[in-house]
Hints:
The structure is a homotetramer of 181-residue chains. In chain A, 68% of the residues lie in helices and 0% in strands. Chain A folds into two domains: 4-46, Homeodomain-like (Arc Repressor Mutant, subunit A, Orthogonal Bundle), CATH 1.10.10; 56-171, Tetracycline Repressor, domain 2 (Orthogonal Bundle). Chain A starts with a helix and ends in a 10-residue tail after the last helix. Chain A contains nine helices and no strands. Chains in contact: A-B, C-D. The interface between A and B is large, with 48 and 48 residues. The structure holds a DNA duplex (31 and 31 nucleotides).
Amino acid sequence: xxxxxxxxxxxxxxxxxxxxxxxxxxxxxxxxxxxxxxxxxxxxxxxxxxxxxxxxxxxxxxxxxxxxxxxxxxxxxxxxxxxxxxxxxxxxxxxxxxxxxxxxxxxxxxxxxxxxxxxxxxxxxxxxxxxxxxxxxxxxxxxxxxxxxxxxxxxxxxxxxxxxxxxxxxxxxxxxxxxxx
Amino acid sequence: xxxxxxxxxxxxxxxxxxxxxxxxxxxxxxxxxxxxxxxxxxxxxxxxxxxxxxxxxxxxxxxxxxxxxxxxxxxxxxxxxxxxxxxxxxxxxxxxxxxxxxxxxxxxxxxxxxxxxxxxxxxxxxxxxxxxxxxxxxxxxxxxxxxxxxxxxxxxxxxxxxxxxxxxxxxxxxxxxxxxx
Amino acid sequence: xxxxxxxxxxxxxxxxxxxxxxxxxxxxxxxxxxxxxxxxxxxxxxxxxxxxxxxxxxxxxxxxxxxxxxxxxxxxxxxxxxxxxxxxxxxxxxxxxxxxxxxxxxxxxxxxxxxxxxxxxxxxxxxxxxxxxxxxxxxxxxxxxxxxxxxxxxxxxxxxxxxxxxxxxxxxxxxxxxxxx
Amino acid sequence: xxxxxxxxxxxxxxxxxxxxxxxxxxxxxxxxxxxxxxxxxxxxxxxxxxxxxxxxxxxxxxxxxxxxxxxxxxxxxxxxxxxxxxxxxxxxxxxxxxxxxxxxxxxxxxxxxxxxxxxxxxxxxxxxxxxxxxxxxxxxxxxxxxxxxxxxxxxxxxxxxxxxxxxxxxxxxxxxxxxxx
DNA sequence: AAGTAAACGAGACGGTACGTCGTGTCTTCCG
DNA sequence: CGGAAGACACGACGTACCGTCTCGTTTACTT
Lengths: 181, 181, 181, 181
């Protein structure tokens, strides 16, 4: 019952009601509640899968691959209208709803992060990034910058910014803490 | 009427109602509405000012100053319980409420960013950062990474991470696009 | 807000919903609930007062007066469409709702009974009924017979039946138990 | 499937749901609906037969026989907890459901009335009641008085009241209208 | 004895009304 | 006359049953 999506985009998350979704889908309200405990869960399920992919194709060029990730997985993700409409609301609901936070993290964020990480690990193995690069932190920086700009400035990163961001990171990425001598 | 704050922390943003605030403050609901058009505006006003300061004191050591900014303005900001409780909800409301977004940006984000920017500009003038450093982007990366981690992992950055983040940036910050010939 | 009555007659008690009443009256559902705890209370208040009167006018002729009571207070009451539509439902609700039973008895039944009793007492004082007539029982018999026929046979008593009923009672009414020696 | 009765007495008519009945009886809801169109029909069938009998035994003493009828068929009927719990609700439903009214009348009321009528006819044939006694009206008066008191006063008639009621009737019962010259 | 049809339990379904709650506006007093 | 108190219209919430409807799975009858 993903005609949730229709209402999501035409009314926005906050103005979308479960009653409307049920009506739109020609379905009893109880049926919706039988499958999802609340609006957040419903939306999360509806949106999952419609998300832009993380490109992991190997091109031989680490910078190119990383740019690709930054562009499609991050700019494409945080910049997409659906995500802009729903993510902040979902995030806000996580404050009261730890289960939702868990699902958001495990079903949306982590898988994307894992695929992105693969690309950076490949860059390390090619020697294009130092072996002690703090991949997690790199990705959080990138994603965070995107998220920040999209949230507060309704803006997203263009190719030029992404290049400069990636290049700066390649030159000197944050390192993992030294563990041994 | 900042006993809003009391309810904010003991009930959370979503469960706090304007009725409760009015009752708590021994005030008519209409009186609250006379001053603020909605809950978001009320909370924004209540919280503003209670926020951790951006330290701009000059110590002579750019790295030290930048770390200080990162620690207090960013980790201290996104990690504080009040901000965690209210920011995501406020952000979610901005989707429907452009005025709120404007105020959030202009009254909270921009001023903090401006003060942080001053610190980075000082670093540039000392020669500790290249003159074409994209300060905005640096700050967005830092803030974004903090925000990201706090939102999805309920976690905040410890000193070690901040050091590594700052050091990486100092070694090779993102640059402004070349504007000249 | 007695536009309850309108819906009562056009939909019947069971099919009338509080939501409809509220909508019809251009009023919030909560406003209805603020004034009446449930449908029964609402209907009881709406109907009270619209009921046929108990005629107590003194004509000098006891039989005539008693017939008048029987006809208007009983046949007119149990035979009226409004009462037929609502009384059984109200009575059914009393099973779960003792407060409703109390109100139904004290606000509808007892006052009518009291006024009818006055007429019979006058007949006693005229010597047209024995002094130890069990007035309560007489009235219950009369009312009960009406109610019975209206409930199970959708029928009401015509003048002829009422005459014979009254005449039989005048000839030999049920007596009060002897109390003294 | 008369474990309906169990739920009837422990929850009351209104709070008893067909789902509960089905669950209690370890039976599918559809199975219940296959046999009865609605709750009223189910309850009517469940209760029928459990009703107190109308005693028609011939004792030779008309007054005694009539008292017996009044006591067991009327006081025993309207005073029994099962009947008190279900009859008003059933009656209320008849307003919307003429078929139910028909069954209630033909399967419950009429048979009892017929058996009671036999007793009164025997009294007439013995000369203890006038030949033109309006038996129907007598029974309706009696039943109605019982019903009335049970419904509005949660009370039932004791032996003394029944005696006085019967005696009054014997002295001067309501007559049938004269039909011929 | 196997094959088939009916009846069955279980429970999901589309609906409808419930009674509660919060919103933002509007009215009523009181000090 | 300003403000507290709170009534008000509105509408979503999540719950409970309704009566209908598929599902497999017994039964019990036919062949």
